[in-house]
Amino acid sequence: MNDKKTTAPGVTPPGLFSSLAKGFNSIAQNIELILFPLVFDLLLWFGPHVRLRSLIQPVVDQMSANLSDFNQTEMTNFIQASNEMFAYIQEHFNLVTSLQTFPIGIPSLMTATLPVMNPLGGPLVFEISSFSSVFVMWVGFSLIGLIFGSWFFLSVSGKSAAERETPDIGHIGEAALQSLLLSLFLFLFILVLIIPTSLMLYILTLISPLLAQISIMVMGLIFIWMLIPFVFSPHGIFTHQLTAVKSILVSLRLVRRYLPGTGLFILMLLLINELLNMLWRVPLETSWLTLVGILGHAFISTALISSMFFYYRAGIQWMEEIINRNVSNENKA
Question: In sequence order, what DSSP letters do the residues of 295-331 get, joined into one string?
């Protein structure tokens, strides 16, 4: 499709700032939607923690005992640093955070900070004593998170439609199934990219550390360039009830051929989200001011997701209008 056809008079792509404005206005008018991330963060802050200390600590102790046989100063420092790192991870780890799924899930501020205290004191802690229990709980939490994440995305998407839509149980179940398939596909796709890249970087590191560092930056940019067309893969599931495969194909076609400026839009959303997250994380986890950060994050993150739905819907309409005009012009010719 040539540029002359894709820039037909009167056909304009979705606006970055207009999509943001519509997204924020939509959530301001439907403020109940922020309850999803709000309740999730409150659960991680005040709710019980599920930890694996009894499983991990014996492994760490055995590793330290094996390494201590070397009796070298460098090894002693390494063991001490490793023990401190594992102690921090064990203290902050909470299996409940697996409720947040990718790429479709409820946004959360607390999954990044992983608080161990709150203004009321310490949380109730449950220790898991077997790896089979860990696996079962992780799968269970992930499925629950996927269902609620799909409900959240459907609710936000419905408010961006011309005719407001309210999701029902059937829509939520179908969306959760397609979201699971989409997550598996993206996981496999990323895995296929990472495995040969890791081997290549290992070889380059043996040849020259400087060459390896340069390669990491170059490959990082290539990865971003390859993944951006997938950015709207979830949206077709929630706006037009597409299957995971069809939604991916629509996203690839839309971004590659019709919305080359999508990278700028996504960059803008990431900057807004990350800069404000720095502000939300300023209060200590034992301060009630953290509640202000949780509320602010819930509103901003939901509004940004809503903006993506407005941008996607406008992009689909723009693409269809271009295709219809091109077909009409070809028929006339």
Answer: HHHHHHHHHHHHHHHHHHHHHHHHHHHHHHHHHHHHH
Task: Locate 8 and state its tokens.
Answer: 């037909």
pLDDT tens digit sequence for 122-159: 888 888 888 888 999 999 999 999 999 999 999 999 98
| CA dist., res. 24 & res. 61, Å (int) | 51
Give the position of tokens 């997701």: 305
Distance, CA of 217 to chain centre = 22
Instruction: Supply the pTM of this predicted model.
Output: 0.86
Nearest Cα neighbor of 6 from 321, 314, 332, 328 is 321
If DSSP codes are grouped into helix, strand and coil, which group holds residue 106?
coil
Specify the length of the chain in residues: 333
Please answer whether residues 120 and 46 qualify as being in contact, where contact means their C-beta atoms are separated by less than 8 angstroms. Answer: yes
Whether the Cβ atoms of residue 160 and residue 26 lie closer than 8 Å to each other: yes
User: 67: pLDDT confidence band, cut at 50, 70 and 90?
Assistant: low
> Radius of gyration of the chain from Cα atoms?
24
